[in-house]
């Protein structure tokens, strides 16, 4: 919003705010964990289960999710990226206990 010029009253015209709104992108996003979960689902090719990734991003430490995500990124010739991600996340949780 800093790049939008304000009028004398300190308010921004609604047309300027709406012009920056991307209707097709980020329509499911209200919180940061939702953005992370959506990006994770998109990277794993599992957008039909994006709510699962929202929940994982909200309830799990980000370091665990990043480790599992990097493991899947580095894996070669994977049949199911979401399954591999969930398996690795489970293994990391077990190792943490």
Number of helices: 5
Alpha carbon gyration radius = 18 Å
- Helix content, binned percent: 55-70%
Q: Tell me the major beta sheet.
A: none
Summed over residues and divided by their number, the pLDDT gives a mean of 84
Provide the β-strand percentage band: under 5%
**Which stretches are low in confidence, meaning pLDDT under 50 for 5 or more residues running?**
none
Descriptive notes:
Helix content is 60%, strand content 0%. The longest helix has 16 residues. The chain is elongated, with a radius of gyration of 18 Å.
Per-chain topology:
Blueprint: H1 14-19, H2 32-44, H3 50-59, H4 62-74, H5 81-96
Which characteristics define this entry?
single chain, 97 residues, mainly alpha, 5 helices, 0% strand, elongated
Provide a brief overview of the structure.
60% of the residues lie in helices and 0% in strands. By secondary structure, the chain is mainly alpha-helical. It has one domain.
């Amino acid at each position: 919003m800093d790049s939008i010029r304000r009028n004398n009253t300190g308010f921004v015209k609604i047309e300027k705010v709406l012009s920056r709104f991307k209707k097709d992108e980020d329509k499911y996003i209200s919180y940061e964990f939702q953005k992370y979960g959506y990006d994770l689902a998109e990277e794993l090719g599992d957008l039909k289960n994006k709510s699962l990734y929202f929940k994982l991003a909200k309830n799990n430490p980000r370091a665990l999710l990043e480790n599992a995500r990097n493991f899947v990124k580095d894996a070669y010739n994977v049949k199911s990226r979401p399954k591999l991600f969930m398996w690795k996340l489970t293994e990391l949780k077990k190792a943490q206990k």
